[in-house]
Amino acid sequence: MAGFETYQEYHRIEDCDEDSPPGEEDLLIHVSEGRGDPWHHIKNLDNFFTRISFKKRLHFKNGFACMVLSEFFELVQFLFVVTFTTFLFNCVEYDVLFANRVVNHTGQSLGPLDRNKVTLPDAILPSEQCTERIQGNSWIIFLLIMAAIFWVYRLVKVIFNVLSYWEIRQFYIKALKIQMDELCNFTWQEVQGRLIHLQREHPMCVQKRELSELDIYHRILRFKNYTVAMINKSLLPVRLRAPFFGDMIFLTQGLKYNFELILFWGPLSLFQNKWSLHPKYKRAANRQDLAKQLSRVILLTGLVNLLLCPFVLVWQVLYAFFSYAEVIKREPGSLGARRWSLYGRLYLRHFNELDHELQGRMGRGYKPAAKYMNVFVSPMLAVLAKNVAFFSGSVFAVLIALTVYDEDVLTVQHILTAITVLGVVITITRSFIPDEHMVWCPEQLLQCVLAHIHYMPDHWKGNANKSETRDEMAQLFQYKAVFILEELLSPIITPFILIFPLRSKSLEIIDFFRNFTVDVAGVGDICSFAQMDIRRHGNPQWMSEGQTEASVYQQAENGKTELSLMHFTIKNPRWQPPQGSSVFISHLMEKVQQDAQTGPSPQLLLSEAPLCTSLLSNESGTGPDNLLASVLAHPVLTASGLPGRNRRFISPSSAASAAASVLASLSASQQPHAGRSRSHTLLPSRQQHDALMYYSDHTVADSMSASESKMLSQSHSALVSEFASAEMSLHAIYMHEVHQQKTQHASGLFQASVPMRDLSANSAQGPETQSTHTVTLESPTSVRLGGWAEEEEEEQGDEEEININPVPDQTSRGSS
Hints:
Elements: H1 2-8, E1 10-12, E2 28-30, H2 45-61, H3 64-90, H4 94-97, H5 112-115, H6 120-123, H7 127-135, H8 138-175, H9 188-201, H10 213-220, H11 222-232, E3 239-242, E4 246-249, H12 253-265, H13 287-330, E5 338-340, H14 342-347, H15 355-374, H16 379-405, H17 415-430, H18 442-453, H19 467-476, E6 477-479, H20 480-502, H21 506-515, E7 517-520, E8 524-527, H22 534-537, H23 560-571, H24 579-596, H25 602-607, H26 609-615, H27 623-639, H28 655-670, H29 699-703, H30 709-712, H31 716-746, H32 756-762, E9 776-777
Parallel strand pairs: 7-9
Antiparallel strand pairs: 1-2, 3-4, 5-6, 7-8
Helix pairs in contact: 2-8, 2-10, 3-8, 12-20, 13-20, 13-21, 15-18, 16-17, 18-27, 18-31, 23-31, 24-28, 26-27, 27-28, 27-31, 28-31
């Protein structure tokens, strides 16, 4: 009997195949007495962790009530667009509205003029006649039925999302002990720390007793890490050659949705469930047959897109019209504003970078990127814009003056239309007229952009003033008008991209998922690039020479592995990297200390901060921003022969040595203090807050003097985030400079990104010859038909889990 009572304390894991590795479905887990909450064992941890991070990001901006209202008004918007469009097509008498047909009102009290005056009810058909028109059109009936089905589907999704929001809200309050009014004061790292602590006491994941920060990121970002890796290896066909336009990047929300449907979570995708790749894709024996099967799936998806193209296109046009018509009328210049393109967000994204981290980084890089793009003004276009603005303004002024003199002028046909069009033309042409008093430094502005976006092709260095560089930057930082046009054309172009370019890459896609999939114990299949393993995916040209065994086929391009590792290490200071990654970080810090010996002193850099800030047109920079400006602009000042604070001319230096000097100073200021998990991490601790943490020789404290009084009033979490971003920016500048020096010294040529098919040909072990044994490593959506998001927020539907298999030639590798 006692044994039976003891057995009752254990619960069998039921229906947990989605979150359990093979062979562990029948595990028994111990349930402590009194633990009846729904978070003791969570069936789908990927989805749960994703909703926690999504809730944190949205609540910081809006709050629970606003999240629910947003979901509700999305339903109302769709209903409004459908009903209002149906009304405009079937219930309005346009001949009467445009006065093409005379209306004669009868009544003794009406004058002769009032009898012929058209009123709004005259142009609207009676409800009986309107209903008769709708019922007599079979196409309208069919479209309304389809819209009703989709609206009901959206209603179910909204109800599910609201219930999920409420569940996560209760989890924050009851399990994590964070009240909703305090959530905005917590960083994601603090929330994540409580999750890890909760796992130790009340396991949410039963396969691993201890969860690391990297485990949580892997679960949240399974699919995104795959997508980032495929963009990095030029596997997805987003670069097209168009007649008259040449090479161009085309990646829209609709195309991205189809990629994910085919590869990740569709009924015919490569994954057998939400956490593991289908076993047949892990074997090389039938790769040709699997490629043909994938090709048929892509063809079927393309044909379905082609069939639905007219309906989706109509919805896109209506959605764009109702969304942007009023904005364009009120602010025509808004179409000339820029935004980070969807391709740019994937190209610039680190492995294991959450949405809010990417959004913050892109937000900090927006102003310098906009200033850099504004450098390129065509003199001929400026002359034409000035003259068009002059002629349009002259006519506009006369019409306004006549209207002020006599308002009856407005009754003249098309006068209001002429005034509106002229106003739009004037606003647009003024955007092409440069500020004659502004002086730009393209090279330094591009370096300032690099400090925030962290990635830049090698051939941009030294060519910041060339139009080719500007055109490539425009692919990452596009006009809003281009974004709208691409989304409108997406229903037409997407089917052809799927049917032709993507189908031809079927074999490469099969090889990619087989070779770059690894099974991590307690997490499932993940992308091997997401492990940020220098030995497996490092690039010798990015300071990992002698530390990596990767072939050209296995290397991540543009230093993605190295920069992602540094970014994750800085953002998660308590994370303990594997042995190989620790060796790389130590090697990097030793290199920083060596280069700092030949660099300028931090005091000199800080004394130049006001001049450097002005040089980079950074009007209202914070302390970290001013420090970055000093590092970026110091080479220009020294090259020009300007004297330093001591009135003696200083020798020229590079941005690498300047960045190394500051990084070494910050690192030195950390060593006397306790409470840090790693000495190379430059983030402040709680105990150091009053002393402003970085006070070695008063180096960074001096930069906080006058301009940082506002920052001192901010929370400690905001201060930590600011300095983490500044530290990563300094590392990005330093690593790019060292990479450029290495490539120039080795060959004198910049290394270009090579398509994946060429890399595989040069690989020591091509995808066909690599083995495919699975190894277990112990390592420390909502659907929207047609519409698109204004900012590239990753859809909530990306909560599904992904699983990945290891690079085959490393089956003997351990957890590192």
